[in-house]
Amino acid sequence: MIKEGDTVHLKGKKDSFFVIVEKDKEFSTHKGTIKFNDIIGKNFGDTVLTHKGEEFFILKPTLYELILYGIKRYTQIIYPKDSAYITLKLGLTSGMKVLESGIGSGALTIVMANALNPDGKIYVYEKEEKFLKNALNNLKLAKLDHIVIPHLHDLSQPIQEKDFDAAFIDVREPWLYIENVKSVLKKGAVIGFLVPTTNQVIEILKELKRLNFLDLEVEEILLRSYKPVPDRLRPDDRMVAHTGYLIFAKNG
User: Fold this and answer.
1) Which of 59, 117, 129, 243 has the fewest CB within 10 Å, making it most exposed?
2) What is the model's pTM?
3) 126 known ligand binder
4) Exposure of 88 by Cβ count < 10 A (0-12 exposed, 13-18 middle, 19+ buried)?
5) 236 carries a ligand binding annotation
6) What does the annotation say about its assembly with partners (predicted)?
7) Strand order across the beta sheet in which 121-126 lies
8) Is 106 annotated as a binding residue?
9) Model pLDDT for residues 162-210, shown as the tens digit of each residue
10) Is the peptide bond before 118 cis (omega within 30 degrees of 0)?
11) Region of residue 183 (left: phi > 0; alpha: psi -120 to 50; beta: else)
């Protein structure tokens, strides 16, 4: 049963909206206004009508849908094809303490927070206040904001927390901060990076080697979808190809 505070996917014939249900409030679309009180108490899969009589299905959104279609973006996001892999490579599970820097719009943070739920924490270090505020609102949409401890903080400054189980860094020049991050990582903890160019990869690898990190890896993930038509199955004309290089290592 849907209750106040739940995030719902309102899907019409041509329109889709992702909203948090608030008692005694309304949501306006060009197809008419929907009263949230008409949604509270219904089940996912039911329908609701706007004041103009337009029908919308009330669906439970997946994290994938929230990330691609629901969150507000101020920055380029880390796509699910990368964020799911990053989360597995970092070995994230409930109870872990994770450092993240460069929250962007929070797409990766949502995936990591879901893996850490209910007892893990992500300590986010972000120097841009508008990015941090927007990402926290996006985390509320996913009902995962309780996992994140935000800091308006530059990685060049001392990091107050210690003993992190894992870290992920997504900033322009991450090699400048690896030594600072290393000082607060547990021995054997995995650190990850995402950068768009080979020049950046080279600088990261140089610094990781200098600081005696172990098991260095560089990877990229390509995703190709196909047209789901049985009589003429073929790849889509476009694909999500290079989005960034992934680098992983363990703190030695």
Assistant:
1) 129
2) 0.88
3) yes
4) exposed
5) no
6) Homotetramer composed of a dimer of dimers.
7) 148-152, 121-126, 97-101, 164-169, 185-195, 245-250, 214-219
8) yes
9) 999 999 999 999 999 999 999 999 999 999 999 999 999 999 999 999 9
10) yes
11) alpha
Find tokens 């439970």 and name the residue. 60
* CATH fold for domain 65-250: Rossmann fold (3.40.50)
| 241 belongs to an annotated ligand binding site | no
Annotated binding-site residue? 170: yes
Domain residue limits, the chain: 7-59, 65-250
105 is an annotated ligand-binding site residue = yes
The reply, when asked if residue 108 is annotated as ligand binding, is yes
Domain 7-59 has CATH 3.90.79.10: no
